[in-house]
Amino acid sequence: MFRQAKWDERLLFEYEDKGLGFAFPMALETCSLPQKLRRGTPIAIPNLSEGEVVRHYTRLSEMNYGVDSGIYPLGSCTMKYTPKLLEEIAAKDELDLHPYTHVAFAQGHLQIMYELEAMLKEIGGVDAVTLQPAAGAQGEFLGMLLVKRHHETRDEHRTEVIIPDTAHGTNPASAKMAGFDVVEIPSKDGCVDMQALKSALGARTAALMLTNPNTLGIFESQILEIADLVHSAGALLYYDGANLNSILGVVRPGDMGFDIVHFNLHKTFGTPHGGGGPGAGPIGVRASLERYLPIPRIEYQTGKYRLDYDRPDSIGKLRAFYGNFNVLVKAYVYIKLFGGDGLRAIAECATLNANYMLHKLKAHYNFEYDGLRKHEFVISPKGKRTLELAKNLLDTGMHPPTIYFPLIIKEALMIEPTESEAKETLDEYVATLIALQERELGEAPMNASVARIDEVTASKAPITSWMSMRNEGAGR
Ligand SMILES: *Cc1c(COP(=O)(O)O)cnc(C)c1O
């Protein structure tokens, strides 16, 4: 029987001061820090021994669940296991460089980024890549700024971005943040409704944002026709790369007709995610859009790498410096480790795993739009609430899939097993899902470190910091 650790763990700030903390060898009074820069009163954090701090974090980790604890088939997120070797390499001291280091001393770093750009160009079928965006959503936002600049440069006034109703919430948010109006179109048989697309396209259309395969795991087989329609209307086609894992080395977004492509390095290329660590969302573009990419661009001339800031058409800077470097290193090593054939094997295995599970679950769950899937599939329970099912699943020691997304499927359970799970694990997960569908669901979770939370209050009145929790007296 599974039981998650359930410590009544306080925040470190709430521990009593035991006076056992690390003692600075030199008393602050004798150091040369000017008086006006010194804090008058001691800061209100307790002195704790190393042992106490280690135990605190160990207990927190015991109450956690991650891909290192078990299967984590969160649809649309590609929560796969990635080799620990990547962490080891990315953490090397030699890679730790101050961002203002002169380029002459950062040649190796620039080479890694330059070569990663080249590999992503090949994988995405695009002409230029920037590594700057820190996440998929920031990549989308950059993509929308590029769309805007593209049309402005051509003196075209285009204000609308078309987005299918299966899209991830970041798509409309990014388009809106860049100043566009969002036009949502419905799906037909789980894919873009061609008729609806045709009527939405017009002189005001700036772009269509699409992910392929889409969030139902279905490959939009009309993609070439979609690209033609979008381009004939004078608009651009944007690729949300969250689902790239399923087509790696098989087909390239650039070849499908996409003009701008984002890559979620933390989904597809070797950075574990879900715990809020840094990610990266590089953007690839067609040659005609390269001049708008953010500065600096990495150039390679006469045996040296340099940073080019002299780009008058660039949208400018998207964020500080050059991107989340350690995530870039992990992607670089990951791609080198697997090679072209290995990447293709990843896509094939991820697809096989998803269809294997779907095949076994189909008879027990509702499943719309029959047919094969790519890396993920969406089902819904019969006569039960998905939320209840997911909470009961927690008590079995397995992480639930994504729930209630995409929005077009009622009571959606969106399962993405990824390539990194063994057949036995998939079988166990399927057996558990079938058992839950067959039996009466009880109060849950009982065996997890956190019981049922008040999700409405959490989203309507979020308390996002310890300070606000203390100030609002919300208690623990
Ligand atoms: C995860 C995801 C995004 C956003 O990517 P982040 O890196 O989380 O910002 C966009 N679209 C889809 C379909 C996704 O699954």
Question: What do these coordinates show?
Answer:
There is one protein chain. By secondary structure, this protein is of the alpha/beta class. The protein is 34% helix and 11% strand. The protein is built from 14 helices and 14 strands. The strands form four sheets. The chain has a seven-stranded mixed β-sheet with strand order 1-9-8-7-6-2-3, sandwiched between helices. A three-stranded antiparallel β-sheet has the order 12-14-13, covered by helices on one side. Helix 5 (170-177) links the parallel strand 2 and strand 3. It is globular, with a radius of gyration of 25 Å. 39% of the residues are buried. The mean pLDDT is 93. The structure holds pyridoxal-5'-phosphate. Pyridoxal-5'-phosphate binds at residues 76, 135-137, 168, 170, 211, 215, 240, 242, 264, 279, 281.
